[in-house]
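Our consortium's second objective concerns turning raw sequence data into structural hypotheses that experimental partners can test. To show how far this objective has progressed, the report includes one record in full. It was chosen at random from the queue rather than selected for favorable results. The single chain below, 402 residues long, was entered without modification.
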Amino acid sequence: MEDISVAICDDSALMRNLISRVIDETEGLTVAGKAMNGKFLVDKLALFKPDVIVLDIEMPEMTGVEFLRWRKQNKVDIPVIILSSIAEKGAAVTIECLELGAADFITKPNGSISADISSVSDRLIELISSYGGSYARRHGKQVRTSEFFSNLGSDRLVERKLATAMGKEKAQEFLSSSKDKASQNAASAFASSTTPKAPAVIEALRKPGKIEVIAIGISTGGPNALRDVFKMIDPHLKQPVLVVQHMPAGFTKEFANSLNKICALNVKEAEDNEPIEGGTIYIAPGNYHIYVEQTNFGKKMLRLSQEPQRNGHRPSADVLFESVAKVYQNHALGVIMTGMGKDGAVELAEMRKQGAWTLGQDEATAIVYGMPKVAYELGGVQKQVPLDKMADEISKLARENA
């Protein structure tokens, strides 16, 4: 197996070193090179030959935004992960970076410079392995899958919990003594997670009916995938579209505004107690679950909540799909797309059981074939669809079953 190579571009020497340490300590990843600004990165890109770039925004000489403009102009396809602060201004600039072709973003802990990189290290590795791995495989490299790095993240979580309970030194001694067994368990989990399973058979309680709502669950790889879908969606679509994209608070409103610029339909961030209107796309706000509720008068409303995370997420696709299965039954279309983990899979299967139409993104075009894979194996996916056909498939089903 070859390593996924990572270029780091940040004007802070501290941040460059901290990010390098996370990468160096992760099996399957290696630092291709470090740059103090976008201009230095441009000059060294051919030498570094990275599979993925971790990019700061505010830098001297050439900012992250200016680098992305150069990247777009020169048709460079190396994926870029943005490091962003969570301020409102930072959110607007971060979404601008997505518009310019950045793959995804991570919010820096405690502002622009912080030694607490450990709080986002698992997320950083998830994005690096997902986007960098996808790029590397497209260019002929044999690299580890996202499931492998997901298991590594689980191991680190165990280590942190043990350190809290018994102290760092005792935790490391304990883990070292059980390393062989842990390695065997990790290898077994990795093998089972990548072995394809035949889909379960779901006996639907009723036949699919007319589609009154479309619900989409998506995670890693989602920002650009949603741009591709909504750019090509039928401008005459009559049904409302409810979307759970795993994204931090403070960014979803700007993200919805960004999608609204390229989509013929109205795209907005969802609000609590909002009537559901046809031909409108509602994006779940960061840190809020979104679900559908039917009033005593039969009117369907959008509701938000801060109930506990589900599957490690808030918003959670499972929460949305569960409510759609209950309220709409067989008068819905459920779509699950690229993303690590299993969020949305169980309740998409429930939607299918209630008679809803369902689609899943295929393995070849998903940045991470996690959520759609689990949904498919549970029998929740009627048809797997490549990303470039997803807008047409959704539009066709919605049009023919309006």
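The partners drew two points from this record. Residues 186-193 have pLDDT under 50 and may be disordered. The CA atoms of residues 119 and 341 lie 19 Å apart. Both points have been shared with the crystallography group to help prioritize constructs.
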